[in-house]
């Protein structure tokens, strides 16, 4: 496995592969790997001749009061895990190269970023689309793999790739969960033991929403009131949002008539967790 920690060598490596007719798959990450990341890597490995994984905690997607400085990092652990799943290249660039002095260009996807996390994390998706655009230009992948755990991010990246005519395919893979159902996240390490118990109510509430849907309920307000009740019943929880949206436009809907997603963001203790479920999809727990 190669570790490339500068932009120019990454670009020439990718260009050389392309000239040889080789296919490149790509998994962008912020590191501190868990099974969710590894699952994306294993799948991406099968899709191409060369799998590149980036590890970069992107400052432009964090708000001023968010956890940028304390975001968990462990490069040595990550590189061992990456090697074990067959990653060919880790791209690990420094901030000074990604955002040099006088940096001033950003990519903004307008509509699908407005609702959900867009409301509580202004500027977050602008940071995400900007960094992904830059990484796509550096890694030159044919296919990039994202987790649907960050559902709004996945929809936003797909929109950007379509709108900007970027020549790559975006694949979304299902959320990987702990044995008890908690969606895997690098931020789960922040949870204290009793908070971790409360955090389980997130997936329980998604299951409850699916159960209500299965029994024929289609009114968002009825599903949402049961779901919020269940989340609030757990200590240490503070709901940021729980919403039912059209699965493509991500606009709120009153009635579930098209494909719909229930998405939630909840602070458990001081840790903000997100989860979601597309009605009718399997809920792997
Ligand atoms: P992050 O390092 O948190 O930015 O995540 C990097 C990639 O891994 C993103 O595409 C995420 O959606 C994906 N990811 C994070 N957690 C999970 C999970 N539990 N299951 C599947 N994919 C995930």
Note the main attributes of this structure:
285 residues, alpha/beta, Rossmann fold, 2 domains, six-stranded parallel beta sheet, three-stranded antiparallel beta sheet, 9 helices, 38% helix
Overview of this protein structure:
This protein has helices spanning 7-19, 35-46, 75-84, 95-98, 117-120, 124-139, 151-163, 193-214, 220-232; strands at residues 2-4, 24-29, 50-55, 89-91, 143-147, 169-173, 237-246, 260-268, 271-278. It is α/β, with parallel strands linked by helices and 285 residues long. The protein folds into 2 domains: 2-173, HUPs (Rossmann fold, 3-Layer(aba) Sandwich); 186-278, Pantoate--beta-alanine Ligase, Chain: A,domain 2. Helix 6 (124-139) packs across helix 7 and helix 8 (193-214) packs antiparallel against helix 9 (220-232). The two termini are 33 Å apart. The chain binds adenosine monophosphate. Adenosine monophosphate binds next to helix 2 and strand 5.
How do the strands and helices of this protein lay out in sequence?
Elements: E1 2-4, H1 7-19, E2 24-29, H2 35-46, E3 50-55, H3 75-84, E4 89-91, H4 95-98, H5 117-120, H6 124-139, E5 143-147, H7 151-163, E6 169-173, H8 193-214, H9 220-232, E7 237-246, E8 260-268, E9 271-278
Parallel strand pairs: 1-4, 2-3, 2-5, 3-4, 5-6
Antiparallel strand pairs: 7-8, 8-9
Helix pairs in contact: 6-7, 8-9
The structure holds adenosine monophosphate.
